[in-house]
Amino acid sequence: MSKNVAIIGQTGAGISSLVNMLCPDANAPTSPNATRCTKEGKEYLWILEDECSCQVHDTVGLGEPGRWHFSFKSFKFVRKPDTWQLKLEEYLKKKDLDLLIYCIPGDRGLLKKSHGQNYGKVKSMMGSVPLVVVVTHLEKFKDPLDGWWSTNLSILRNVGIPETTKHACVTTLPKKDLENGDLYDNSREGLETLIRGILWPSTGHRRR
Ligand SMILES: Nc1nc2c(ncn2[C@@H]2O[C@H](COP(=O)(O)OP(=O)(O)OP(=O)(O)O)[C@@H](O)[C@H]2O)c(=O)[nH]1
Ligand SMILES: [Mg+2]
Q: In CATH, what number does 2-203 get?
């Protein structure tokens, strides 16, 4: 029943924080600095109830999409991949992945076109692996966190993430940093429900 799940996204989206939420013993390094923190992919074990387990992969974050240049090979304009994209691709291709979780920040002003462009890149890079979205940075969202998605459909459309994408809406801040600890528990549960629904559909959803 062991599976491989990679957490991916643009640098700073909360990739490593999400790993720590799923695997509380992981202690994957996180940082508020402007410079990137995770420079190599690394896997951590997540043991769920009922003997399910996962290798959860913390990965290098993607940068802004590279510049356009004309490729004489394909005879069209293409974006030059940045070194972090190449590094991520190399890491992911070596793993036998069952699921990709793409993090985007949902806080006002943080979600940009580049998040959608990178989503498109990952989709074409890893086409056959299921790809879901986790919206992070939602601790200030007033309604139930799940409501973020339906409230922001026009923004999702604008950045190019299909509204039908399977998703969870969360905060990945540690419980100790939240005034309302329920937000942490709800976020964790929402994540587990999303992941279980794809990896082990027969084990039943714990919520919704
Ligand atoms: N407010 C808020 N901050 C968050 C959330 N998730 C992560 N952060 C903060 O954002 C910063 C970056 O988080 P990381 O988990 O290191 O992000 P990352 O995507 O792994 O970034 P790199 O490894 O640098 O590419 C840290 O200071 C986190 O505490 C969230 O849901 N809400
Ligand atoms: Mg990181």
A: 3.40.50.300
